[in-house]
């Protein structure tokens, strides 16, 4: 019986290979199983910013497993996600034993064929993505686009986000889509199997609801043996439609060249929107032929993709003058769609909660704009109009910002433990690079080196604290940002100091020198040789304990360092004047308060008394400007003897920056005001005023278009909603306002304070009309009844009070302990849409109570800890939750947020549980709101906003702290969110055209996609902002897990002539002998070397030209053999660097990239090793069969000094798995791979074979790694299969040639294998440098074990990774592990010996 009969008639891949099994399937990233309402079945949603990081893959281990699916037709039932990238990759094995990848993706702009891949671009004319049946005829694809390649089987496939997928199956039969019973009887075609088809209603047409795509669209191989008319039906690739029957094939045919030359992707959607004004010209769309080649019937409904493999002309025949319009659309594309993004940030009112210095203020060169951070956002504001634009991407508070010389690049840093540095292209406000500054946290200062105003200033210095919270040391890093536009920057040097640094400035016209100041130090820095950072500090002897506040250089038109003057200000009122070149203090200025004589406002003289505390300082070519803690901004002469201007502010000055033309000063105060002082006309313009601490509550007046807010800074502020300007401010003494609400008539508002007082203010007169003191604890909730006659209040003790607003706010009723006190927030009370009922959580966190607003009489109590939901299929789901808050919806529903981040929907009349929505947020769930028609839900949590439309949502970042409240305006056109600042968003669901019609509204792609397409953002709207920041280190990485072990070999002598004629009988005999040994169950771990199958043979006749007479010389090789193991050698101190490519060893000079190619091997090199004295390099190749059919693995010994072959050795194994020199370089050990695991010991004196050893007791056991003891030259350990570690000692008897090997076995604890549920293997070993008695071993299940080499026992183990740990290396008190998933982890093992109770003294 044929072994492929089990695949007849088809294979349901998801079911047969068990998609839920981790051994047969890999689900990476955001992959979720959910119930699709349209299909009424379970589907899998794959989504993520980078498709390569979010995928479903069959089989789980694509490198050493295979699906072995022989059906040449591959079907995928999927639906792409609109305006997102997706990819489908199918790896097939040909009869010629070649691996070919066939891919379909909307990432591809054009059709492309290489020796190992075929790439099809995907396009669609509609904004509505339909469920699709995608069929690949793999055999026809190979015959059409590959030469001499014949389909054999499907090895693996990968579905990469963003898409919804129901199933995949393979078959040798073609299944026609949408066949009715009547048509199926009349036709010999096969209909889609029921379990692999889509549901169709009684009166519905399959082609009206779904799409069918065939690749290629014309093929003879898909015709069944019983079908005679199938070819006429699929003559071209098209989406079948019931309305297509009236069209001829000529009408439907599209040139595939036209399609692949004009593929539209999300990138094109951004690049072309300005040129297109038609509503149908949106992404994704298809190009069409000129009008002369199209039919007059323009009803193209249902067409999504055209691929015609039979009509690909040559490049020379393509007419560049074709006018390809975007024309093929459907009626369904005209339906309204949720725009992406649905929110656009319009106004930010806030300056940050930690306003500290002028490192956060910038002017643009033209003087029209200023930049400042507002918590996690950098705001760009026009000085005249106060219009705002935003740099969005940071996840914590922005601490410092800086421009390069020509203001083309903006650098920003954020606080927090992550140490994130972002670089932005200023013109487009696009983040082009994100860097995790190594070993740092709380970055707080940075500066660009500026040589001149037209320079791009590639040198950047960044300052932060140590990564550990208890670490107080300061870290200074210098970067070269020359390649920032490519997504990466280079770290030039790094230094650590105990001195504190608050400000840092580059020396003008020199990008290698800079100065820093801290609380009590002035330090000079200099870079030597480009990577050596040195510093020196100076002290001011005359004054003790100066606290420096700002640093400025004197304006100079030349770049002479010997004339450069530095000014340093201090809180004590002293300004230190230094001469930079001499590193010495020239003069100390003490600034005294001023007084005016004889009442004159013109003459200002100095007064006696204490000095002025200077908080900020700047200077121009003619003046010096100081900002002091008394609130004055003073303009001095350069010698500080005369004051020209004094400007009084309400509180201390904390930031001063002069414009480039030196005519205006940007002033920041600790009270939250930002203004501009014009030095010419002495006018002051206020740009913004804001809360200086978190905003706790806000309310909106739709009549006046005003907002009122309260914050922890103790102020009550009223804002203009349209402009964001502050209209008035109330300051409370000895009490802090916490909640606020407008009365329905909008003439008064009530404010609750933290001491339990409630005050009612009149807006017109700003007087307090009533003061209520019924509560003794802080107020938590306030709301008016709809008629304004009742005021309900709650406090921290859970007391609920009802007040009569018409009768001087007399107390009507009090309910003690009515509310739960376990949760605190601003959404304590919620009033129903009709105003008759009020809901709250209480008296416990498991109960939600609804009372009458006018009497507080209880009408309904819901116990959410025991609610049961009956689903449509009669299943019951019980909810046992604790409530956070409750909120009425406009449609009589009651929404309850729970501590498990779920949202429960109740009927507010009956208390029936209607629905449960899981995973609203991940860490916190702070607030929610609904639009007035209940169509959209907005939630706040995890410092972000989620905008929900049914089960779909969009996330928006910008807040750096918990969101206290979010609400729609009365017209649903805007959304307001508060927390660290006040954010006003435009809701684009009502006013913005669907994404297919791009105009001046915001158009945004995920930022990771934007980094891949730098040209996209050059056309973004000024207000367009990325919603999701790109993650650090993601822009320079190209993730492709399938190619890690499939890098093409370099050409070797065995590949000189692939067409050498070999007798058929001899070829079969050799293949039979070799294949039998090479297919002996290779190990499933990535650490073990697996030799690639070599189909080439050495030429029988070869000519080798004499030296220096070659007509062709190999100059350089680009590549690296990723299939090798430990095939890279690097000695950091000497700079020696070597690696293998195919059968060649490359020695590369890292300074100039010059390559020296060492030839001599004829097969793939498996491993390299370098002697400890860096004099010898050893390389080992895979085995070749001799005339006697004996295995011979060649090992070449290279002289590093002369870079030539010294000698070669032979070992009778299939391949060398690992080899290493002993500590004193007297011995060399080589171990064979799994097919013949033999250990060989060589003497490096004359390279004689001292001994061969193999474990005869366990023939199935093999060795994966070896490690020499760093302290003892005769000890080493072997990591083996079956969880075995072998501790070996070389026992020398009379001389070096008479040795024996002493081996002691140890086994990993059985609990590790039981935990991993798979056989345990040792994959890497390393001896600790600090204690040679300890050796660390990693395993294939992610554990690291620690062994005592004297007792041969396992002392401890820990879970270090979720995947196989392939390599480890130890430094002093540090351990670096690398896993098969590409994850590197650095471990601190300093206390390892102490925890094990061992001494730190090594034995002699």
Any idea what the radius of gyration is?
Answer: 37 Å
Low-confidence stretches: 218-336, 597-608, 991-1079, 1399-1404
| Residues in helices, as a percent range | under 10%
How would you state the average pLDDT, rounded?
77
Shape: globular
Helix- and strand-based class?
mainly beta
The end-to-end span amounts to 68 Å
Extended strand count? 100
Number of helices: 13
Q: Strand count, sense and closure of the main sheet?
A: 7 strands, mixed
The portion of residues forming beta strands comes to 35-45%
WD repeats: 688-729
Region (Disordered): 1020-1086
Organism: Rotaria socialis
Keywords: Repeat, WD repeat
Characterize this entry briefly:
WD repeats lie at residues 688-729. The chain is mainly beta and 1404 residues long.
Q: Would you mind describing this structure in some detail?
A:
The chain has 1404 residues and is mainly beta. Strand 67 (893-898) and strand 68 form a beta hairpin. The longest helix has 15 residues, at 1064-1078. It is globular, with a radius of gyration of 37 Å. Residues 218-336, 597-608, 991-1079 and 1399-1404 have low confidence and may be disordered. The two termini are 68 Å apart. The protein contains 13 helices and 100 strands. Strands 1, 3, 4, 6, 11, 13 and 16 form a seven-stranded mixed β-sheet that branches. Strands 2-5-12-7-8-10-9 form a seven-stranded mixed β-sheet. Strands 81, 82, 83, 84 and 85 form a five-stranded antiparallel β-sheet that branches.
């Amino acid at each position: 019986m044929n072994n492929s009969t089990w695949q007849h008639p088809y294979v349901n891949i998801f079911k047969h290979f068990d998609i839920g099994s981790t051994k047969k399937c890999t689900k990476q990233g955001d992959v979720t199983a959910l119930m699709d309402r349209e299909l009424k079945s379970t589907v899998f949603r794959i989504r993520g910013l980078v498709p390569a990081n979010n995928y479903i893959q069959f089989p789980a281990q694509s490198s050493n497993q295979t699906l072995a699916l022989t059906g040449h037709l591959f079907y995928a039932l999927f639906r792409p996600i609109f305006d997102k990238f997706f990819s489908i990759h199918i790896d097939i094995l040909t009869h010629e034993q070649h691996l070919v990848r066939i891919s379909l993706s909307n990432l591809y702009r054009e059709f492309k064929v290489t020796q190992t891949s075929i790439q099809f671009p995907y396009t669609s004319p509609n904004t509505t993505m339909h469920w699709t049946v995608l069929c690949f005829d793999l055999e026809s694809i190979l015959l059409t686009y590959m030469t001499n390649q014949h389909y054999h089987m499907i090895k693996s496939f990968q579905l990469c986000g963003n898409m919804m997928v129901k199933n995949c199956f393979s078959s040798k039969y073609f299944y026609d889509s949408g066949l009715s019973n009547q048509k199926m009887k009349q036709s010999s075609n096969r209909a889609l199997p029921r379990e692999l088809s889509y549901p169709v209603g009684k009166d519905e047409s399959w082609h009206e609801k779904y799409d069918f795509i065939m690749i290629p669209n014309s093929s003879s191989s898909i015709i069944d043996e019983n079908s005679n008319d199938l070819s006429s039906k699929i003559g071209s690739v098209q989406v079948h439609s019931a309305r297509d029957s009236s069209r001829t094939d000529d009408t439907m045919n599209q040139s595939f060249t036209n399609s692949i030359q004009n593929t539209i992707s999300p990138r094109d959607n951004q690049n072309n929107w300005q040129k297109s004004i038609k509503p149908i010209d949106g992404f994704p769309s298809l190009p069409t032929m000129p009008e002369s080649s199209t039919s007059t019937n323009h009803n193209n409904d249902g067409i999504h993709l055209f691929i015609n493999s039979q009509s690909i002309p040559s490049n020379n025949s393509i007419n560049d003058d074709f006018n390809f319009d975007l024309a093929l659309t459907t009626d369904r594309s005209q339906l309204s769609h949720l725009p992406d993004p649905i929110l656009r940030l319009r106004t930010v009112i806030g300056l940050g909660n930690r306003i500290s210095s002028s490192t956060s203020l910038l002017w643009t060169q033209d003087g029209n704009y200023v930049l400042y951070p507002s918590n996690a956002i950098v705001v760009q504001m026009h000085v005249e109009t106060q219009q705002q634009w935003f740099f969005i991407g940071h996840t914590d508070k922005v601490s410092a910002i800086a421009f390069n010389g020509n203001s083309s690049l903006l650098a920003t840093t954020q606080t927090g433990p992550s140490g994130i540095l972002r670089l932005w292209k200023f013109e487009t406000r696009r983040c082009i690079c994100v860097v995790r500054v190594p070993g740092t946290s709380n970055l707080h200062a940075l500066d660009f080196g500026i040589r001149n105003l037209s320079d791009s200033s590639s040198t950047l210095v960044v300052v932060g604290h140590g990564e550990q919270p208890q670490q107080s040391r300061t870290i200074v890093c210098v970067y070269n940002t020359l390649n920032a536009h490519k997504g990466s920057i280079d770290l030039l040097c790094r230094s650590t100091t105990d001195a504190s640094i608050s400000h840092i400035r580059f020396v003008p016209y020199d990008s290698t020198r800079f100065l820093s100041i801290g609380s009590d130090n002035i330090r000079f820095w200099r870079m030597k040789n480009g990577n050596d950072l040195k510093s020196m500090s100076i002290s001011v002897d005359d004054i003790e304990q100066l606290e420096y506040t700002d640093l400025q250089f004197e304006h100079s038109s030349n770049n002479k360092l010997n004339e450069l003057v530095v000014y340093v200000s201090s809180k004590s009122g002293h300004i230190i004047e230094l001469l930079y070149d001499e590193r010495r203090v020239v003069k100390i200025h003490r600034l005294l308060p001023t007084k005016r004589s004889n009442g004159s406002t013109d003459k200002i003289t100095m007064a006696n008394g204490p000095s002025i505390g200077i908080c900020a300082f700047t200077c121009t070519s003619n003046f010096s400007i100081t900002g002091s803690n008394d609130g004055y901004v003073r303009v001095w002469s350069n010698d500080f003897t005369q004051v020209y201007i004094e400007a009084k502010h309400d509180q201390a000055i904390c930031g001063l920056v002069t414009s480039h033309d030196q005519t205006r000063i940007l002033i920041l105060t600790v009270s939250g005001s930002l203004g501009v002082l014009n030095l010419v006309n002495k006018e002051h313009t206020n740009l913004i005023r804001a809360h200086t601490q978190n905003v706790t509550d806000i309310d909106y007046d739709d009549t006046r278009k005003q907002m009122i807010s309260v914050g922890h800074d103790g102020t009550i502020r009223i804002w203009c909603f349209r402009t964001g300007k502050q209209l008035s401010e109330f300051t409370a003494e000895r009490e802090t306002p916490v909640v606020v609400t407008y009365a329905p008539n909008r003439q008064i508002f009530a404010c609750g304070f933290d001491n339990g007082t409630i005050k009612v203010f009149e807006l017109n007169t700003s007087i307090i009309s009533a003061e209520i003191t019924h509560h003794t604890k802080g107020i938590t909730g306030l709301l008016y009844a709809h008629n304004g006659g009742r005021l309900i209040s709650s406090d921290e003790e859970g007391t609920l009070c009802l007040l009569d607003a018409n009768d001087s706010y007399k107390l009507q009723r009090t309910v003690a302990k009515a509310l739960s006190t376990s949760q605190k927030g601003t959404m304590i009370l919620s009033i129903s849409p009709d105003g008759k009922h009020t809901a709250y959580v209480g008296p416990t966190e498991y109960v939600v109570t609804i009372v009458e607003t006018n009497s507080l009489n209880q009408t309904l109590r819901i116990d959410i800890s025991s609610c049961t939901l009956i689903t449509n299929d009669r299943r019951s789901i019980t909810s046992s939750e604790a409530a956070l808050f409750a909120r009425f919806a406009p449609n009589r529903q009651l929404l309850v947020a729970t501590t498990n981040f779920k949202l429960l929907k109740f009927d507010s009349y009956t208390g029936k549980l209607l629905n449960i929505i899981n995973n609203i947020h991940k860490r916190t769930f702070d607030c929610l709101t609904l639009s007035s028609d209940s169509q959209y839900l907005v939630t706040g949590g995890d410092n972000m906003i989620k905008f929900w439309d049914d089960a779909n949502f969009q996330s928006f970042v910008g807040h750096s702290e918990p969101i206290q409240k979010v609400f729609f305006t009365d017209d649903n056109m805007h959304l307001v969110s508060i927390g660290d600042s006040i954010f006003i968003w435009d809701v684009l669901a009502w006013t913005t055209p669907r994404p297919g019609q791009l105009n001046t509204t915001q158009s945004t792609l995920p930022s990771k996609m934007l980094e891949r397409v730098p040209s996209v953002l050059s056309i973004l709207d000024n207000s367009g902002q990325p919603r999701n920041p790109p993650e650090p280190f993601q822009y320079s990485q190209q993730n492709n897990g399938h190619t890690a072990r499939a890098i093409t070999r370099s050409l070797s002598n065995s590949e000189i002539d692939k067409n050498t004629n070999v007798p058929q009988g001899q070829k079969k005999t050799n293949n039979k002998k070799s294949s039998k040994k090479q297919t002996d169950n290779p190990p499933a771990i990535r650490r073990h070397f697996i030799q690639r199958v070599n189909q080439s043979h050495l030429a029988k006749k070869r000519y080798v030209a004499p030296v220096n007479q070659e007509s062709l010389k190999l100059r350089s090789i680009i590549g690296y053999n990723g299939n090798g193991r430990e095939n890279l050698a690097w000695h950091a101190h000497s700079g020696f660097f070597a690696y293998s490519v195919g059968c060649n060893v490359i020695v590369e000079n890292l300074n100039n990239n010059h390559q020296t190619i060492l030839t001599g091997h004829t097969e793939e090199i498996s491993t390299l090793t370098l002697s400890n004295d860096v004099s010898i390099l050893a390389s080992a190749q895979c085995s070749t069969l001799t005339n006697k059919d004996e295995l011979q693995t060649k090992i070449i010994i290279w002289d590093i000094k002369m870079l030539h072959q010294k000698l070669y050795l032979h070992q009778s194994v299939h391949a060398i798995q690992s080899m290493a020199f002993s500590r004193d370089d007297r011995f060399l050990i080589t171990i064979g791979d799994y097919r013949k695991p033999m250990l060989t010991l060589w003497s490096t004196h004359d390279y004689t074979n001292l001994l061969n050893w193999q474990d005869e007791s366990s023939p199935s056991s093999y060795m994966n790694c070896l490690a020499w003891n760093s302290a003892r030259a005769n000890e080493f350990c072997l990591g083996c299969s079956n969880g075995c570690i072998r501790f070996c000692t070389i026992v020398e008897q009379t001389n070096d040639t008479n040795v024996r090997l002493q081996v002691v076995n140890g086994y990993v604890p059985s609990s590790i294998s039981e935990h991993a549920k798979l056989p345990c293997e040792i994959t890497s070993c390393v001896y600790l440098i600090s204690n040679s008695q300890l050796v660390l071993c990693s395993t294939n299940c992610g554990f690291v074990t620690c062994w005592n080499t004297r007792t041969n026992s396992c002392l401890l183990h820990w879970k270090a990774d979720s995947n196989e740990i392939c390599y480890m290396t130890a430094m002093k008190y540090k351990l670096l592990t690398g896993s098969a998933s590409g994850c590197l982890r650095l471990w601190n093992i300093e206390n390892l010996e102490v925890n094990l109770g061992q001494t730190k003294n090594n034995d002699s």
